[in-house]
């Protein structure tokens, strides 16, 4: 059931690749809640993905941008503002590690790949915010949400160099959140989501066993992509105006559970 939570709000949604993507669900829900937005993804992902279907269903435009390119991001923000006017929300839903893809062990990383992981998965948030700020593209009380994972705080061995990228992403959330808050009352938060069966998620080794482990460790069970989308909408709405610089766990209680009866029963 829709509540018109984003009525009159405009935004940019990064990272909808296919209907499993968390960003895809956010776009569907943002549309239901009355928002207008531009969809964006890396040009290569657009060729492989199904973003046109989503654009049609949500009556939104598509502007390609590689989130590691300042030129692409400048073009994205200026065109989005031309089309929609100043923006109220941005979803950063971007992650990629060539080391994970090529099965490199964490103790034996390829450093060119490592740079790429950090650039795509973390520095892209800094670039996005920097371009938005320089172009003054966000309205006061605008809200930026980046998606992250608890491997930023605790060791999940197969998450590999993505753990380092997520730590950096969460740090950028805090640091930029301070500066953008002081300058323009813009708020920036990260949502730390349960393991979710998407292209990026299932790329992590042992994902099938791992998602079931997380589900059994979480008093409320894993949070789905749809539930994550609902949380993102609440963070874009006016009901969360004073929440900023936070890493918000959206994981059914996993992050604060030491052990569960379900897991003990399996021992
Ligand atoms: P996904 O694979 O559907 O989305 C990842 C997106 O990043 C894709 O749309 C991809 O095209 C985009 N991307 C990659 N390189 C890019 C670049 N250079 N420029 C612009 N876009 C680029 O997977 P998912 O799971 O929806 O991932 C979204 C976010 O959620 C990521 O930050 C991921 O780390 C995070 N997350 C995912 C979890 C999971 O288990 N699936 C758990 C916690 C966080």
CATH class: Alpha Beta
Q: What is the multimeric organization of the chains shown?
A: single chain
Number of domains: 1
Tell me which ligands are bound. Answer: 1,4-dihydronicotinamide adenine dinucleotide
Strand and helix order? EHEHHEHEHHEHEHHHEH
Task: Compute the number of helices.
Answer: 11
Q: What is the β-strand count?
A: 7
Spatial order of strands in the largest sheet: 3-2-1-4-5-6-7
Mean pLDDT figure:
97
Judging by the overall fold, what is the CATH architecture?
3-Layer(aba) Sandwich
What is this structure's SSE topology?
Layout: E1 10-14, H1 22-32, E2 36-40, H2 43-48, H3 51-58, E3 61-62, H4 70-84, E4 87-92, H5 98-101, H6 111-134, E5 138-148, H7 162-184, E6 187-193, H8 199-202, H9 207-217, H10 225-236, E7 247-250, H11 261-265
This protein binds 1,4-dihydronicotinamide adenine dinucleotide.
What does this structure look like?
- Helix 1 crosses helix 10 (225-236), helix 4 runs parallel beside helix 6 (111-134) and helix 6 (111-134) runs parallel beside helix 7.
- The chain has helices spanning 22-32, 43-48, 51-58, 70-84, 98-101, 111-134, 162-184, 199-202, 207-217, 225-236, 261-265; strands spanning 10-14, 36-40, 61-62, 87-92, 138-148, 187-193, 247-250.
- The relative contact order is 0.14.
- Helix 7 links the parallel strand 5 (138-148) and strand 6.
- It has 267 residues and is α/β, with parallel strands linked by helices.
- It starts with 9 loop residues before the first strand and ends with a helix.
- The chain has one domain (10-265): NAD(P)-binding Rossmann-like Domain (Rossmann fold).
- The structure holds 1,4-dihydronicotinamide adenine dinucleotide.
- 1,4-dihydronicotinamide adenine dinucleotide binds next to helix 1, strand 5 and helix 8.
């Amino acid at each position: 059931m829709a509540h018109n939570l984003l009525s009159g709000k405009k935004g940019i949604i990064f990272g909808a690749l296919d209907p499993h993507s968390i960003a895809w669900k956010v776009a569907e829900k943002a549309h239901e809640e009355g928002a207008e937005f531009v969809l964006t993804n890396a040009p290569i992902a657009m060729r492989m993905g199904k973003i046109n279907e989503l654009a049609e269903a949500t009556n939104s435009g598509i502007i390609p941008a590689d989130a590691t390119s300042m030129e692409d991001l400048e073009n994205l923000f200026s065109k989005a503002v031309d089309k929609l006017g100043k923006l109220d929300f941005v979803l950063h839903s971007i992650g990629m590690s060539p080391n994970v893809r090529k099965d490199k062990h964490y103790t034996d990383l390829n450093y060119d790949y490592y740079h790429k992981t950090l650039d795509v998965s973390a520095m892209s948030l800094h670039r996005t915010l920097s371009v938005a700020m320089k172009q003054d593209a966000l309205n006061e009380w605008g809200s930026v949400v980046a998606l992250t994972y608890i491997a930023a705080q605790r060791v999940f061995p197969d998450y590999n160099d993505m753990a380092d990228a997520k730590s950096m992403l969460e740090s950028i959330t805090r640091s930029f959140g301070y500066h953008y808050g002081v300058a323009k009352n813009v708020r920036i938060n990260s949502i730390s989501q349960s393991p979710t069966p998407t292209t990026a998620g299932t790329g992590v080794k042992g994902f099938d066993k791992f998602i079931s482990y997380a589900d059994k460790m979480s008093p409320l069970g894993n949070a789905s992509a749809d539930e994550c989308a609902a949380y993102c909408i609440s963070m874009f709405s006016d009901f969360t105006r004073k929440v900023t610089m936070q890493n918000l766990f959206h994981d059914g209680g996993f992050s604060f559970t030491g052990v569960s009866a379900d897991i003990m029963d399996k021992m």
